[in-house]
Amino acid sequence: MTDAPAILWFRNDLRLADHAALQAAVASGRPVLPVFILDDHSPGPWAMGGASRWWLHHSLTSLQQSLADLGATLTLRRGDSVAVIGAIAAQTGAAEVFTGGSADPWARRVDQAAADALGGRLRRLRTTTLFHPDSVRSKSGGAYSVYTPFANACRALGGPKPPAAAPHRLVAAPPPDSERLADWGLLPTSPDWACGLRATWTPGEAAAMRRAEAFLTDGLAGYADARDRPADDGTSMLSPHLHFGEISAVQLWHMAHQQPNGPAREVFIRELLWREFCAHLLWHNPGLPETPLKPEFARMPWRDDTAALTAWQKGRTGVPIVDAGMRQLWQTGWMHNRVRMIVASFLIKHLMIPWQAGEAWFWDTLVDADLASNAGNWQWVAGCGADAAPYFRIFNPVLQSRKFDAAGDYLRRFVPELAELDARHVHAPWEASPQALAAAGVVLGETYPAPIVDLADGRTRALEAYARIRSAE
């Protein structure tokens, strides 16, 4: 073993198991120096939002302890990634720097600049996706823009290699000076808006594995149906653990394939491949978070309606399923996937507010705010992305609510003003009689808002706008 250390630069891969960069650093035979850099400069407008910063604090706390158990110390630095990693390498005389790759365009720019600054000592490995985005190509050698052939191409590769176990020991390099995590101010102070996050989540690699094992053992069998019912505990809720890399997509792929074959397992695998598809889209379309993939959508006559956007953000639209979802988001940092589609469709199509405004709000408030998935899914709902929903698909929020939350349990949990309304009226209180509203203690416009848009009028307006941009092609 040589004395010159190998730096292990953690990014969105805050785990020890199935970590290709960690494995390579150990295999180098050099003492390993774990490092994490908080960079609020390089991502520009896509620096982490508040909910993600809360998660990061606790995930790093968990990683620090896991490394300490192996006799290593996580060095924390804040600043420009390229300058900081170069300074640490110079200070420690590092021979190599091992790090994971990402589809995020700003991360790729950082990688290239760091490679140039380190003079060939940077080793980039895949730690965040099932496959390298360049390894999945169409028969013509191009990128995919439709999900199904992309998923088929992924399956044709035979699946990712089995995940590697975490090392049992780590020869650690003496750590340089480190900043204190508590000094980074990642947690809210006043007001403390994170009580719902604390009640809902336990960040960290061990918690990620516990949640994955519990879901695949007890929840997978009913997943195909239960995942559409927001009142049920029917989804895996693994997305934030995946985003921060506390568990890898490769681990989940192989854990799922250890379960009995059937429709539920297939649905779960498709979800992993959809996440992979979004990363593929961002890799090949770096402008995905800002620019519609279908250029004609740049002509969409969006409305500048600050009051409507604020009502949507605060869960005060007067449409119960929309308001329930937005309040769940604010309280827990997460929203049920079916409801995400409903609230996104409502913002884009009923309110005619740009999808980028919704994307930005989700980025700040989601604990699983992933640049590729966030952008890809918002463009899908808007109809302007790859494999997008047809432009004429406009979710009727009331029908969606009655179909997937028939008893209204989800609505009453997050919109308690409507708790006394029965299942006939809770989905659309404006349809209830004055007597029914009075009996439930509901006064539209006072105790609960009246709808900020007529759903039929909003749908007609959206269809007319979409038809205009299509006719101008």
Task: Write structural notes for this entry.
The chain has helices at 20-27, 50-69, 81-92, 105-117, 147-156, 195-200, 205-219, 223-226, 239-243, 249-257, 263-284, 306-314, 320-332, 337-350, 355-365, 371-382, 397-404, 409-414, 434-439, 455-471; strands at 6-10, 32-38, 75-78, 96-100, 122-125. Helix content is 47%, strand content 5%. It is globular and about 80 Å long. The termini are far apart. The protein contains 20 helices and five strands. It is mainly alpha-helical.
Features:
473 residues, mainly alpha, Rossmann fold, Serine Threonine Protein Phosphatase 5, Tetratricopeptide repeat, DNA Cyclobutane Dipyrimidine Photolyase, subunit A, domain 3, 5-stranded parallel β-sheet, 20 helices, 5 strands, 47% helix, globular
Distance between the termini: 64 Å
What is the helix/strand order?
EHEHEHEHEHHHHHHHHHHHHHHHH
How confident is the prediction overall: mean pLDDT?
95
Name the CATH superfamily classification of the largest domain: DNA Cyclobutane Dipyrimidine Photolyase, subunit A, domain 3
Q: How would you name the oligomeric state of the polypeptide chains in this document?
A: single chain
Which range best describes the helical content: under 10%, 10-25%, 25-40%, 40-55%, 55-70% or over 70%?
40-55%
DSSP strand content: 5-15%
Number of helices: 20
**How would you classify the helix and strand content by structural class?**
mainly alpha
Q: Strands of the biggest beta sheet: in what spatial order?
A: 3-2-1-4-5
Shape: globular
Provide the domain count.
3
- Name of the CATH first level of the largest domain: Mainly Alpha
Counting DSSP E segments of at least 2 residues, the number of strands comes to 5
Give me the Rg, rounded.
24 Å
Query: In CATH terms, what is the architecture of the largest domain?
Result: Orthogonal Bundle
Reported by name, the CATH topology of the largest domain is DNA Cyclobutane Dipyrimidine Photolyase, subunit A, domain 3
